[in-house]
Amino acid sequence: MMSIRRGDPARTAAGGGFGNPARARRFLLEADELLHAEVLAVPGTEDLLTAAADPDAAALGVLRVAEAAAGAGTAAQFVAAAQNPAFLRRLCDIAGGSEASVDHLVRWPNSVRLLAGDGDSVLIGTDDALPESIRAAMFAAVRADPDAEAPTAGITGSEAVGALRRAYRDLLLRLTADDLGSAAPERLIEDVTAVLSDMAAGAVDAGLAIARAEIPEAAGLRLAVIGFGKCGARELNYVSDVDVVFCWASAEGAAPEAGATAAAQLAQRTMETVSGMDSEPALWEIDAALRPEGRDGPLVRRLDEFEHYYLNIAHNWEFQALLKARPIAGDRQLGQSWYDTLNPLVWTASRRGGFIEQVRAMRVRVVDLIPGREADRQIKLGAGGLRDVEFSAQLLQLVHGRDDERIRMPNTLRVLEALGSCGYIASEDAAAFIESYEFLRVVEHRLQIPRMQRTALLPTQESKLRMLARSVYGGGDRSIARLTEERRAHARRVRALHEQIFYRPILDSAAQVGLMSAAAAQERLSAFGYRAPKPAMKHIAALTTGVSRSAMVQKQVLPALLDWFSDGVDPDAGLLAFRRLSDSLSGSAWYLKMLRDSGLAAKSMAQVLSLSGFATDLLLHNPTAVEWLDDHRRLQPRRITAVETEIAGLLERHRGGAASAIRALYSREVLRTALADILEVLDRAEVPSVLSGLMDAAIDGALSATRAELDATVQPPDYEFAVVAMGRLGGAEIGYYSDADVMFAYRAADSDLDADARAHLAAHVKKVALRLTSDLGSAAVSLPIDVDADLRPEGKSGPLVRALDSYRSYYANWSEPWEAQALLRARTIAGDAQLREDFRSLIDPLRYPSSVPESSLRQMRRLKARMEDERLPRGADPKRHIKLGRGGLSDVEWTVQLMQLMHAHTHEQLRTTSTLPALRAGAQAGLLGEEDAQILETAWTMATQLRSAVMLYRGRTAEALPADRSELEAAARLMGYRPGNSQQLTEDYLGSARRARKVMERLFYSFD
């Protein structure tokens, strides 16, 4: 590490000056009068003030320091220090850049001599000697022997604490003056952060010496302080929490229980010497929350306890934190043993299940927690900020460090250099990252220095922004405009570098032109979620090899796509689908242009391909739909009237084979809906009604096509035909997984047909129904509609198609109570309008009866109970089964349907085939409480969306809450949960179902 050197004094005043020059000159004259010497109101001093970050504050600060010196009787020391040519410049820099430093000089006027930059300065020295000289200065302040085996302070209490804190701030004063005086502070940033870390370590070590002197019970006890985070990495800020853990070992012959108590007292007092209340202000916060089990765990632990915790209990993120840990104070041998025992575990952690995914999810959560109004001003946690650089470096270390010791180091700047020199990232990318990181750290420090407060938030006031800009730049243009533009440019570059750093070397390796070996590239892919890295490398090579336009474009966009795929649940599927899609569209100029120019389209495509097998299959069959992703407005569902008009046009153009074209249209519009759902363009609550409308239109159009073809061939007697939707389609609440449950009805135009004509017509309408079912269900490349007529009277043993009079006779004489319940969802969706209306008139008295016999209610309840016992699959957990489980879809729907059977006759608003409208109408009518209705609605909505989400992910329906981790994670994301929150989905679903079951038992079975 370089020594800290003072900056170039020949800095310009560009970027601003005094707000009140006359007042500044008056302050200098007053200061000289107080000092009884002419040392400030001399030629050149005003220029020094003008060069400070805040010239007016500098003038006032100089006066305050002179007043304090005069008041304390140290004016002579001030005047003597001023004989050094560097003194006034350093004083003006401090006074105009750090009010907190001025406050320290006012409290301790004699410390002003330190600004002369000579004498026994501990900040100038060799690399190896500097940390020890800082530590020695801290121990000297508390009169402890730094060479003792267990240094113990010669003073205690407030006297010792005050001496320690003053010594720390004296060192901080010199460092701040060196830093603020630099013409190029970014060149010093690594040295500044290292000195700050060494000062923090020295303060903690001296604080431990005070604690030893005050706690005689700890005599002989060994305590090591392990620094984490920035202090552990020797890259500390001016003001930051110092994260630590404490490891202790018993004194020889001491009882372990007593030792643990004394060690905890020693650790607690050590923290208080630095952070507690006292006559001299606290330095910064010592935070021990990173210890095993966090704040709930014991403050101190033995080494074997640490080892057991990290081997058996620790969470994945704790190994990332361990990456920067090192002994900073206390017993050196014990600290080194701690490091030697635990540090190797860091380099095996990336093999733990879900490690990289969880680390990345934590970064996402940190960004999500930033208040929206602060996001653009956050230089640390915001997008393109310091944390992005640190996160990128750490992630690559965790992936490759287990096999390469050359990159095992905690310091971010050193890691970036090593990653570049070892070929894990391009050397130019490493240099760019380092440049951005150094700039952002300088800005962060300049935000903290004025009041020595912890912050990484850019100010909004113009005066503070002006001071910040002048503080960041030692010379040249020191304007707000320059600071704003450069900060934005660095943020943009950091965001862009992320994908280049992680994935560009993989492309080079696939093309066999990179420094990274194929094995290392596969290792990186594996770490970032690719389960089959070898085939993935083949896909990448196939996409980027050659000099064709498609290869060049794909080489350009693949780093971003690989990153976005890895953010998904199944990146391998995403990459494979992208290759297949690109193969089919590689000759399309619009596709390549969209890939190259539209970040929205490329990111949306990556999200879909890596998250939804259902949508991916549809997209591969309809690849031109990728164009919709460039404009999310095109994903909005089309009006059903527009779909019906298009179907009518198909019927005109395809008189003989319109069913196939209608299926293709239906598939296309379901794809549109799925894409809108996945990309959150469409409210998920609208999905069932949109899908139901599409299925209605497709069935109606296919029926028209079938009748036109068959009727022209056979020429049967005139007749009417209708399709009645049942079940979820009847309720207009289907998902991507739903069959089309229907019944078929017909009526002869002539009621006096003879027996042969009636038989002929019956046979013909059956052919219509069978042909319709076949045409809609046979789809080689488009999405089929599986028409199921099992809910018809008498089920599979009954006629497929019934005449309206036959329905009337059946319902009058033979129907069971459960059939009235099933008819609550009957909705005519296709065929002749008058027959549809007459069918509704026929079934309304049955499904909305004036009264329900108690025997029917008992039968309904028995049937529900039997379903729970008999239809639940063997071994299924009833708490997790979405449809038939406790609090699942069936519980909610049967409760609502019971209410409809009992009350729809008198409450017309209950006469709807859809569950949620009926539930809300019942609450509005006072038939159930608002709270009960909300509980049932929440459970039903969550179960419905969960089934659709699993269908979107794996392309087949789900009957239970997923147990597979990937499937559960995909479902959670598709339901709007943030990445990594799948367990929250489980808890939310089980909780909502449990509450719904209690309501259902009380309302449906009438017991608590």
Automatic annotation (TrEMBL):
Domain of life of the organism encoding this protein: Bacteria
One GO MF term: nucleotidyltransferase activity
Keyword Cytoplasm in annotation: no
PANTHER family: BIFUNCTIONAL GLUTAMINE SYNTHETASE ADENYLYLTRANSFERASE_ADENYLYL-REMOVING ENZYME, GLUTAMINE SYNTHETASE ADENYLYLTRANSFERASE
One Pfam family it belongs to: GlnE
Residue ranges of every copy of the PII-uridylyltransferase/Glutamine-synthetase adenylyltransferase domain listed in the record: 376-502, 864-1004
Keyword presence, Plastid: no
SUPFAM superfamilies: Nucleotidyltransferase, Nucleotidyltransferase substrate binding subunit/domain
Keywords associated with the record: ATP-binding, Magnesium, Multifunctional enzyme, Nucleotide-binding, Nucleotidyltransferase, Transferase
Name of the protein: Bifunctional [glutamine synthetase] adenylyltransferase/[glutamine synthetase]-adenylyl-L-tyrosine phosphorylase
Gene3D superfamilies recorded: Beta Polymerase, domain 2, Nucleotidyltransferases domain 2
Domain Glutamate-ammonia ligase adenylyltransferase repeated intervals: 158-337, 603-839
